[in-house]
Design brief:
Elements: H1 18-33, H2 38-44, E1 49-58, E2 64-75, E3 81-82, E4 85-88, H3 93-109, E5 116-122, H4 130-144, E6 153-154, H5 163-176, H6 202-217, E7 226-230, H7 236-245, E8 249-255, E9 258-261, H8 268-278, E10 288-290, H9 292-296, E11 302-305, E12 324-326, H10 335-343, E13 347-349, H11 351-354, H12 357-371, H13 377-402, H14 406-425
Parallel strand pairs: 3-6, 4-5, 7-8, 7-11, 11-12, 12-13
Antiparallel strand pairs: 1-2, 2-5, 8-9, 9-10
Helix pairs in contact: 1-3, 1-14, 3-14, 4-5, 6-7, 6-12, 6-13, 12-13, 13-14
Bound molecules: glutamic acid.
Length: 430
């Protein structure tokens, strides 16, 4: 997914990753569309603070292994930093910078009072025992503890982390603050310790709210449509299930072990159960095996890429047959591929809105923690729907008016809000 040129005038290596460079391409185009103040463009082109830490862990065999962790705080104009923590073997600083930038633009376009950040540790969590994962999480938390807090920077789950990881995170932070429970330091926690109802399925549900709305605009209906879902983790599995519950035919899903296809429709509930027991879809026999690449190119109505970044680029964009693509993952389609798909009339619901359900309900969780007053699940699902569709409709309106692609439109709306706030706050010290 290499962009055509290095767009960043600041040549440090951590700013040259493909994900960040792609985000910058979209950013620069959108900044022009809305005639953004050049001083604001200059400031938004780079992260405010990048923290790199060593995370030593005593492994079960008593040896000590040192992992590298990151927290990138991109921008805090609109509120405290907010964004998830990724445990994955491909995590590096350039990737985290790109993800932190996307969080900034996401929180802005969604209208949340939050800045943008992201964290991660370079580790394959599937190779760790539970005890090793707990030690890693606790030491990583401790290493970045000075920089985070309920009013400073509020992490959350991402690829490779879950509610249990957040519980260890919250406990470690609280112990280091004298043992007083600090639920507001992290979201995506189990409900028993201050988590929010509806947070676990929020990203997947948001993807489906957006998919339904996008299909409506294309004169299509979710019920009876053919849907392919890449990724069967926290986002993809719930997205598949919510689409299935609404009558869609889920013709394929995939995880790291490959793709699973059935033209007549898969039984998603059965697959969710299977993945729970077996930890992956490996060995699932009630489907034809395909590759992740083949899944992306299937003839379908809606494609939901819910895995990792850089999945659709100029190599496969021409072969994509879906009419609607809803980006459950962060950065699954490159800027150049977006242009090709847009020209071919494919409707793309961009990541910063489409997968915003997670951080929207994270915001609700943080608010509930601060108030110590908790809402019903139906309230949360409905509030999520209101917030995410409001942002989507605003972007669609902008897109129709300016005749640009949806990714540029979402970025443009996001930049306008950030620009106004940055101009109002001014530059410190002058
Ligand atoms: N990791 C999720 C994302 O990429 C959620 C972030 C959050 O809840 O703070 O949006």
């Amino acid at each position: 997914m290499a962009p055509q040129e290095n767009l960043n005038p600041h040549s440090e290596a951590h700013l040259n990753g493909p994900l960040f460079q792609n985000a910058l391409l979209t950013f620069k185009e959108a900044a022009k569309i809305v005639n953004c103040d050049p001083n604001i463009v200059e400031r938004l082109e780079r992260p405010r603070r990048c923290i790199t830490v060593s995370v030593p862990v005593r492994m079960d065999d008593q040896s000590v292994k040192v992992f590298t962790g990151y927290r990138v705080q991109y921008n805090a104009t609109l509120g405290p930093y907010k964004g998830g923590i990724r445990f994955h073997q491909n995590v590096d600083l350039p990737e985290v910078v790109g993800l932190a930038a996307l969080m900034t633009f996401k929180n802005s376009v969604l209208g949340l009072p939050l800045g943008g950040a992201k964290g991660g540790v370079c580790v394959d969590p599937t190779k760790l025992s539970r005890a090793e994962k707990q030690s890693l999480t606790r030491r990583y938390t401790s290493e970045i503890a000075h920089f985070i807090g309920p009013t400073k920077d509020i992490p959350a789950p991402d690829v490779g982390t879950d509610a249990q990881t957040m519980a260890w995170f919250m406990d470690t932070y609280s112990q280091e603050q004298g043992g007083y429970a600090q639920p507001g330091v992290v979201t995506g926690k189990p409900v028993e310790i201050g988590g929010s109802l509806g947070r676990n399925h929020a990203t997947g549900l948001g993807v489906i709210y957006i998919c339904e709305r996008a299909m409506e605009q294309k004169g299509m209906k979710m019920s009876g449509s053919r849907v392919a879902v890449q990724g069967f983790g926290n986002v993809g599995s719930f997205a598949a299930k919510f689409a299935y519950d609404r009558g869609a035919r889920i013709i394929a899903v995939s995880d790291v072990t490959g793709g699973y296809f059935n033209g007549d429709g898969l039984n998603v509930n059965d697959m969710v159960e299977y993945a729970k027991i077996n930890k992956s879809l490996k060995g699932y026999t009630k489907a034809e095996l395909i590759t992740n690449e083949q899944l992306l190119e299937l003839d379908c109505d809606a494609l939901l890429p819910c895995a990792l970044e850089g999945q659709i680029d100029t190599h496969n964009a021409e072969r994509i047959k879906a009419k609607v693509i809803v980006e459950g993952a962060n950065g699954p389609i490159t800027n150049a591929a977006t242009k090709i798909l847009h020209q071919r009339g494919v409707f793309i619901a961009p990541d910063v809105i489409a997968n915003g359900g997670g951080v929207i309900v994270s915001y609700f969780e943080w608010v509930q923690d601060i108030m110590s007053f908790f809402w019903d699940e139906s309230d949360i699902d409905n509030k999520l729907k209101t917030v995410i569709l409001k942002a989507f409709d605003t972007v669609c309106h902008f897109q129709a008016e300016k005749k640009v692609d949806m990714r540029s439109a979402a970025m443009a709306v996001s930049i306008q809000r950030l620009e106004k706030a940055m101009l109002l706050r001014g530059l410190y010290p002058r």
